[in-house]
Structure formats: structure tokens, C-alpha cells
Write a structure and sequence with these properties.
alpha/beta; 2 domains; two-stranded antiparallel sheet; 336 residues; globular
Length: 336
């Protein structure tokens, strides 16, 4: 692995990710459902990272296209869009068409088969990374031509993977040729340095950016992240049928974390699983939508274990600046 270098610009950090996308810092602000909108994307990209947003944050493809146009009118820097590429997402084709039409610099796929997204984005000279949690799926993405994988580890906000980042990053790195981007639990510059040392070509950070001025969520949600410890984060299957990391609020405690045996059967049975996915997605997204935008007793707040390292709510550009400063300080502290 080539050591990350500091470029001519004294603070820039040159890695596989920055060289591939042409950005200053190897930091992606992870796309976050109902959290990251145009403002957050633009502020992070303008600050030298890569701002990300999921296409499904917009209720229609037309609204999503207007958002992409707005981002492109506000920044010429690279940004990312997350597309869910499984059959349950009825917006898969129109949203990909929009990414192709507007040459979205980086598409991040999750779930399903990324083949079509890779083929079509490559035709217009754009890059595709795939969210992965296992080597088997990562190898499939590499075979299909992905430009990189996002290694989603345990401790992550959203749908966390099962494996420790200390193991997942070097494990994937050992078997893949494409860049491995570390995601899960990263909220400080020291952790970015650690991830790069483990072989990551960059990092994707979610939870830290929820506690930003630009995240479009209720102040109670941001404050809950500032106040949470790592052990306040639990995994619940109640939202989408698969484990999602959430803050253990009284509402989550009341709901319980497990689904019933019957629901489990419906989720795994060949004939019912597609419909269950759609139903869960709908129920899950509606309860999330209500929880993130306003005060409600139904506090469903997704966040990762990195919450324990977050003490303040800052403008997104300042978060990027601080991460970079901490990174350089950490590197200079390494024993010779
Ligand atoms: C509230 C929330 C919503 C998320 N929504 C999405 C999403 O829609 N698409 C996606 O690819 N990743 C999503 N993620 C994952 C993030 O992009 C990122 O990979 C993850 O948050 C990294 O872990 P961290 O939160 O510990 O930094 C979400 C994460 C959170 C916390």
C-alpha cells in the first residue's frame, strides 16, 4: 500500500479516493436518508470532501432531478448520490437515468445488483462505489467493474455491517484491487488516520454530519447524538427487517428490537419477501420521516457508535476542517 501523501497544498491529503475523484480530502459525507440534502452536500464538497445524498430523499424522480441540478449550480466539485439497486426500489431506473443525464461524479449503490449502474455511469465517465459488508459481495462488485467499495463495518449508523473495521478494512484490502473506503464509527481525524493506515483509500462518515448545522433534522435528534455514548446505540430489526443502528430512546425500548417469528418467515419466504421489503420500507420510512423532522415521542433516530465521540453541532465545513486538522496532528504524533 502506498502511504498517503500530503500534496503541495500543505493540508491536502492525497489517497486513492482523492486521485480518483479529484477532491482535496479523502472524506465522503455518507448519503443519509432524510438527513442529507442539497445544503449539506454542497458545503462538504466545497470544503474539499465529497458530499453525498440518497436519491430517495426526494419523493419523486422529478424532485430528485431538480436537486441534482441545484447541486451542480452551486458547486463544480465532486459529489455523490446513493442509489438503491434492488427490485423493491421502483425508482431505480428513473433515478439512474438522472444520474447519467447529469453526470453525477460518484454513484454509491446499496443492496441488489450494481451491474447496470456501473455500466451506464461508466459510459458517461463517472465512478461507482458499492456499499459492502462482506468479501464475497465486494468481490462480485469488483468483478462487475466497480471503482471502489464502501466497507460498512460494525458500529456504523444506518444499516451497520457485522465485522469490526479493524478486521474488515485489511481483509477486503488483501483480496481486492479496487479502493476500499472505510465506513462505520469514524467521527475524528485520528480515526481517519487509523483507517488509512489499515489500507483504506478514504473514509465515509455519516453520524458526525448529522450533528451539523446543515443536516435537515430536528434539534432533539442532533442533541441526542451529542449526548449519546457508544453503548446507547442498539441494533433494531423493527424498522426495515434487517438491523439498523439507532439511539436507544424510550420509544425504541418500548418497541423492542426483534421482529416476530412470523415476520421473519415473511421476510425470508421466496414468495413474500419482496412485498415485505416494500411494506417495511414504507412503514420504516414513514416513521423515520416523522421522527427526524419534528418533536415526537416516536423517537427513531439512526446513529452509529461514533456518537460517543461527538460533542458539538458545527457547520459541515468546520467539521471537515477539524477532521483534517486532527488527521495531521495524529499523523505527526505517530512514534518514529
Ligand atoms: C440516519 C442515517 C441514514 C442513512 N441513510 C443511508 C442511505 O440512505 N443510503 C446509504 O447508502 N447509506 C445510508 N447511511 C449510511 C451512511 O451513508 C454511512 O455509510 C454511515 O453512516 C457510516 O457510519 P457512521 O454513521 O458510523 O459514520 C445512513 C446512515 C445514517 C446514520
Amino acid at each position: 500500500m502506498a502511504a498517503p501523501k500530503i500534496s503541495n497544498d500543505s493540508k491536502a491529503i492525497s489517497t486513492e479516493l482523492t486521485r480518483l475523484l479529484g477532491c482535496k480530502y479523502p472524506i465522503i459525507a455518507g448519503p443519509m436518508f432524510l438527513v442529507s440534502y442539497v445544503d449539506l452536500v454542497v458545503k462538504v464538497s466545497e470544503a474539499g470532501g465529497i458530499g453525498g445524498t440518497p436519491s430517495l430523499n426526494w419523493r419523486t424522480a422529478e424532485e430528485f432531478e431538480a436537486a441534482v441540478k441545484e447541486i451542480k449550480s452551486l458547486t463544480s466539485k465532486p459529489f455523490a448520490v446513493n442509489l438503491i439497486v434492488n427490485a423493491a426500489n421502483s425508482r431505480q431506473v428513473p433515478d439512474l437515468d438522472i444520474c447519467v443525464r447529469h453526470k453525477v461524479p460518484l454513484v454509491i449503490t446499496s443492496l441488489g445488483n450494481p451491474k447496470e449502474a456501473i455500466r451506464r455511469m461508466h459510459e458517461v465517465g463517472c465512478k461507482v462505489f458499492c456499499d459492502v459488508t462482506t468479501l464475497k459481495y465486494a468481490q462480485k462488485c469488483e468483478e462487475l467493474g466497480a471503482d471502489g467499495v464502501i466497507a460498512v463495518s460494525s458500529g456504523a449508523g444506518g444499516h451497520a455491517g457485522p465485522t469490526s473495521p479493524l478486521v474488515l478494512i485489511p481483509h477486503l484490502k488483501r483480496h481486492l484491487k479496487i479502493p476500499v473506503i472505510a465506513a462505520g464509527g469514524i467521527a475524528t481525524g485520528e480515526q481517519i488516520a487509523a483507517a488509512l493506515l489499515l489500507g483504506a483509500g478514504g473514509v465515509q462518515i455519516g453520524t458526525r454530519f448529522i450533528a451539523s448545522n446543515e443536516a435537515r433534522v430536528d434539534a432533539n435528534y442532533k442533541n441526542a447524538i451529542v449526548n449519546a455514548s457508544p453503548d446507547d446505540i442498539v441494533l433494531t430489526k423493527k424498522i426495515s427487517g434487517v438491523p439498523v443502528a439507532v439511539i436507544n430512546t424510550p420509544y425504541i425500548k418500548k418497541m423492542g428490537l426483534e421482529i416476530t417469528k412470523f415476520e421473519e418467515f415473511l421476510h425470508t419466504n421466496e414468495r413474500t419477501k419482496k412485498y415485505m421489503k416494500m411494506l417495511r420500507h414504507y412503514i420504516g420510512s414513514e416513521s423515520l420521516r416523522n421522527a427526524v423532522v419534528g418533536p415526537t415521542w416516536k423517537e427513531v433516530w439512526s446513529a452509529g457508535q461514533g456518537s460517543g465521540l461527538i460533542d458539538d453541532i458545527l457547520p459541515a465545513a468546520e467539521i471537515v476542517e477539524r477532521l483534517v486538522k486532527e488527521y495531521h496532528e495524529a499523523v505527526s504524533r505517530l512514534p518514529a
